[in-house]
Amino acid sequence: MVYLMNRQPLNHIKMRQKDDYLWKGVLEDVLDDFLRFIHPNTDQLLDLSKGISFLDKELEQLFPPENDEYSPKVVDKLAKVYTREGKEEWILLHLEVQNVYNPDFPERMFTYYYRIFDKYHKRISAYAIFTGASPKEDTRTYEEEFMGTSIRYRFNTFKIMDQDESDLLRSNNPFALVALIAKAAFNGKRLKDAEARDRALLEIKLNLLREMLSREIPKNKIRGLINFLTYYIRFEKQETNRIFEESKQKLTGGSSTMGIEELLLDRAKKQGLTRGVKQEKQRRDRKIVLNLLDHTDFSDEQIAKLAEVSEEYVAKLRKSLK
To answer: How many distinct structural domains can be found in the chain?
Structure first.
């Protein structure tokens, strides 16, 4: 959940919207890993083999988006998962991503809780992911009391800037890489000199990319993680971006025209799985483009670059929505 305390330039708003989308996407890709990272006993409590259903449209109905582009923006996910309690029982997971902390945040989390519970009457486990500077005050409790009537609502919090980088690197959990990326992006903003910042971030991005490729991360997650790394940590200069892209091609084992998706297709072909991977790619590409068209005002060129598809494909989908 990202609050705008003051009116900001349009390019800052668009960058924030892009970050919002990237967080939504990567949380869908690695939500199971996030749960296991926070709760080591997740698989004893939840049956993730039954899948995770995302209820973003339902959540939007509970909290309709503001028409004012300067109003507080929300990065939130609502997911349905099944428990291991011996019956077809499911619960809801509510996640918020908070960049700039606002004192009203705990109350906002409580508002989400009672509206979601009122609609579904299911148990809810809520999480707040803080991506910016860690607030000093209590960020996980909302309390209210008057004349003998009181309520206390407490939710899970995960503060990225409080995580130890060495511990994150030692972890085999893919979400640890997400945390490392977010932490690097925040720390990079502290460097005032653009050239020094680009040099530092380039080294960090390439090291993180090498780390990703050295691990046995499932194919259905690697693309999301690499996209998050590529677009969440930004450079000031186009030349630095070009160097990273060329290095990325070399590290993935491809030629100058082979990206990560082609690399996965090449590996899948050797395993006799080409058709399934192509279908998965087409499905994911369509989902990414439709989400960007629905939630941003990006141009066809911007969406094509972010989703790694052609501008013609984006234009065709945009036309189909009219």
So the answer is: 2
Structural domain includes residue 248: no
Same domain as 279, residue 154: no
Q: Which domain holds residue 148?
A: 1-162
Torsion of CA 209, 211, 216, 221, to 10 degrees: -40
Counting residues of the chain whose pLDDT is more than 90, the rounded percentage is 30
Helix ranges, 39-173 (H): 42-45, 56-62, 105-120, 165-170
Q: Is residue 221 part of a domain?
A: no
Three-state DSSP class for 252? coil
In a domain, 319, yes or no: yes
- CA nearest to 318, candidates 306, 295, 300: 300
Q: What's the token pair of residue 276?
A: 């399934």
CA distances for 127 relative to 2, 39, 42, 207, 319, angstroms: 14, 12, 14, 29, 37
Summarised one tens digit per residue, pLDDT across range 116-139 is: 999 999 999 999 898 888 777 778
